Amino acid sequence: MINLKQFEVWFITGSQHLYGEETLQQVARHSQVIAESLGRAQQIPVTVIFKPTVKTPDEIYRICVDASVSTNCIGIITWMHTFSPAKMWINGLKILQKPMLHLHTQFNRDIPWSDIDMDFMNLNQSAHGDREFGFMVSRMRMNRKVVVGYWKDPEVLEQINMWARAAAGWHDWQGARFVRFGDNMRQVAVTEGDKVEAEYKFGYSVNTHGVGDLVKIINEVADTDIDRLTKEYEAKYSVAEELKKGNARHASLRDAAKIELGLKFFLEHGNYKGFTDTFEDLHGMVQLPGIAAQRLMGAGYGFAGEGDWKTAALVRAMKTMGSGLPGGNSFMEDYTYHFDPDNQLVLGAHMLEICESIADGKPSCEIHALGIGGKADPVRLVFNGSAGPALNASMMDMGNRFRLLVNEVFAVAPVESLPKLPVARVLWRPYPEMKTGCAAWILAGGAHHTCYSQNLNAECLEDFAGMAGIEFVLIGKNTDIYQFKNELRWNEVYYQLNH
Ligand code: MN
Hints:
Mean pLDDT: 97
Structural class: alpha/beta
Number of helices: 15
Bound molecules: manganese (II) ion
Distance between the termini: 37 Å
Number of strands: 19
Radius of gyration: 25 Å
Strand content: 15-25%
Oligomer: single chain
């Protein structure tokens, strides 16, 4: 699990010298109370750092520089308790390199009807102070999140939570390394993309290693480590009889453990946050990594099959964002449909590699044939995904921009048992309903590969796309196909002009 408390969000209050020392002291006290309350709130997963009130262009510039170069600062929260003339903010905002949340709040929740006087009005004027600040940020065409409401309001805390998680995912991408073993699956379009543009836009690098480099590491794995890991498999999963120690196919379980240990070593020593492989390039590998990919995802690594580096990076970002929340995030593929008019469903799965973090109950560890790749039968974890609200997120390279597409779904328990299906699987109903959801996905050019999330919401991913400066498209409860097509057309014009 990735520890989000290592990340800092700085709470910065703007004001000016007009009001005198006494008012500024009150501003500072109130800001400190709010910052400390956010820092203590159960819903806020990161560390909130109170910063002294900024009152001059120099102070504003300095704090924006400091936030931009600070290793642990993942974003800033700004609030104008009083009026902070916004031309003072221009030079600071120009240099700011971290995501910003503008918290449009007020220290008091209610108007003190019987006591309110002009002193109170002078102190509590964010209703117009925040408008002045908002104008400047809009005038500068800067992305930011605006959250409105009383600072103890649970909805406000939830919005800050999801924004902070998006900022953590974004921070995690900066300088991140992803490794590809082999190229993209031959002739596949959507898993391709511009890796140079991705590094420029997203901050992570994607580089290749011949699968032989990995095989060499796998072959050096010690027998004692394999013993330990196969025991861990038997303790944690319902391992099939034939795979258990002393039984016919135990050697295959040991091969799978050896692959997992080799991959883990390779990732740790190369300082990688995720990887891709492809069944078309497994020279020297005994099996396609199945349980290895599933468990490495479970440990927080990004992964996607068939050389799909964009999805591998997205899985890693979403694992960072979802860290500590119940439920999981996994590589996923829309596999096959149930077109029963009364219960239309998508069955999501992959050849093997679905993350154990989304499992409902204890996975079983099994071995079955795999019709592609030409290698030995791979060991894999088989389970059903948990029921409940979820979403699929997909990243495409549209040629002149990246598009992050999200479809909100509702996962359901399997209608019947699936005794012959040898892979982990999830059943879901897309919003707004099957036909519109799938049509909109196809019109938006959505990939067959996604990151499936049980614990992040669409707003979090919209915040994330905003931080990256890329297009965000949502298919949700209110999607209307006519409006959706227009949105795609209008976005096309916007990104042509804004390129
Ligand atoms: Mn696939």
